[in-house]
Design brief:
This protein is of the alpha/beta class and about 350 residues long. About 40% of the residues lie in helices and about 15% in strands.
């Protein structure tokens, strides 16, 4: 297993991060109902990940029902007493209770959410505490000051954000610098062979400033596992079988199927799985600290873990780059027309 700095921090994390969105069996009505893992399977995946050198785990208060994923992880800590073996990341922002106070990134919401997560996780500190999505109704200074106070209290070691627009990243950094507040160490965002839009603004900025990228959905909800076929329904029990609207959008894009076909070809040449190739491609992209993988079984986890040690030859990486090249619109096309870059 390879280890890298967690963005702007000095802590080193495995290049694959165990995503815990699947942990626990949520009740009917939850967006993960029917496609998650039992407590026992979740704990087995944590054990297996540690055995293979994974030291980084990511969850959120909203995963499952009423903090279910956090509670599953917290129970593992209670049973095993190995809290310090993990770099633990969680998030707040989305709705956890009805009414105007149940969501958002206000100071009040952040402070209460952090305390609730600490209790569910059975720990007295969170390594990486992230804002799950920017909150247009809350000034960024209020967000950063609340997080800064949690750091000074010792309840949070590092802070990060997720699903932020590039302009908001810049605003957050400017505010942190001018107000002498802790800045975000990382950005967690969707990034894969299919979804490469971060390369326009986010990644160039992150490369210059040292912020680390934590890609989520590196397999595009399973599309890049190679098990889906053009024009056919998704296999039963898979995420895209439940999330039909997303499958429909992916299925109708010719670019996506060209990527999948190229990916299958590269995987066959390397005698490995499409998932391992897709993860290896993301892992070695600029600014990436660790790639978040999600699994429902130990077998799925083992397949994903192959992506930690797989290294793509330059010619095969170039083939994937070309197949998934990002279409350029204005102003990037204008800039590219003059100097070949954007």
């Amino acid at each position: 297993m390879e280890y890298r700095r967690l963005g702007r921090s000095g802590t080193r994390v495995s290049t694959l991060c165990l995503g815990a969105m699947t942990f626990g069996e949520p009740t009917e009505g939850s967006f993960m109902h029917g496609i998650a893992a039992s407590n026992d399977v979740s704990w087995a995946m944590m054990n297996r990940a540690l055995e293979c050198g994974v030291n980084f785990i990511d969850t959120a208060d909203v995963y499952g029902n009423d903090g279910l994923s956090e509670r599953v992880i917290g129970e593992w800590f209670v049973r095993n007493g190995r809290r310090t073996d993990w770099v633990l990341a969680t998030k707040c922002r989305f709705r956890m209770q009805p009414g105007p106070l149940g969501s958002g990134a206000s100071r009040r919401r952040i402070m209460l959410a952090a305390e609730a997560s600490l209790k569910r996780l059975h720990t007295d500190y969170i390594d990486l505490y992230q804002i799950h999505m920017q909150d247009k109704d809350t000034p960024e200074e209020e967000v950063l000051r609340a997080l800064d106070d949690l750091v000074h209290q010792g309840k949070v070691l590092y802070t990060g954000c997720s699903n932020y627009a590039a302009y908001r990243l810049v605003q957050a950094d400017w505010t942190a610098d001018k107000r002498n507040l802790n800045s975000f160490a990382t950005l967690q965002a969707e990034y894969s062979l299919i979804v490469r839009s971060l390369e326009r603004e986010h990644i160039p900025y992150m490369e210059k400033t040292g912020m680390g990228l934590l890609p989520w959905s590196p397999l595009a909800g399973g599309m890049l596992t190679g098990k889906y076929k053009r024009g056919e329904d998704a296999p039963g029990g898979t995420r895209l079988a439940k999330w039909q609207d997303r499958l429909k959008g992916l299925d109708q894009a010719e670019r996506n199927w060209h990527i999948v076909d190229t990916l299958r070809g590269v995987a066959a040449e390397m005698n490995t799985s499409a998932a391992a190739v897709a993860l290896a491609w993301v892992r070695d992209r600029p600014a990436v600290s660790s790639v978040i993988i999600g699994a429902r079984s130990v077998e799925q986890l083992d397949d994903n873990l192959r992506g930690a040690t797989l290294h793509l030859p330059p010619e095969l990486r170039a083939r994937l780059d070309a197949a998934s090249a990002l279409p350029l619109d204005y102003p990037y096309s204008f800039i590219h027309g003059f100097d070949g870059t954007w």
